[in-house]
Amino acid sequence: MVFHKSLTRELTFTALGVFVVLLAIIISTQAINLLGRAAEGRSPTKP
User: Are 44 and 34 in contact (CB under 8 A)?
Assistant: First the structure.
């Protein structure tokens, strides 16, 4: 039972860490794209 709780806690923290890292990558990629479009003079809302 102790092993099960420990494993569950470890997997939860690992999954949460992976989620946070992937979210940070997505947000930074979107910010880079936005800044690139702004530097070209294109409107960020137009495709």
Answer: yes
When pLDDT is averaged across residues 29-39 and rounded to a whole number, the result is 92
Distance of CA 14 to the CA centre of its chain: 14
For residue 43, pLDDT over 80 is answered with no
Question: 2-33 burial by CB neighbour count: b if 16+ within 10 A, else e?
Answer: eeeeeeeeeeeeeeeeeeeeeeeeeeeeeeee
pLDDT of 2: 80
Distance (Å, whole) CA 2 – CA 7: 9
What 8-state DSSP symbol labels residue 41?
T
CA 4 to CA 13: how far, in whole Å?
14
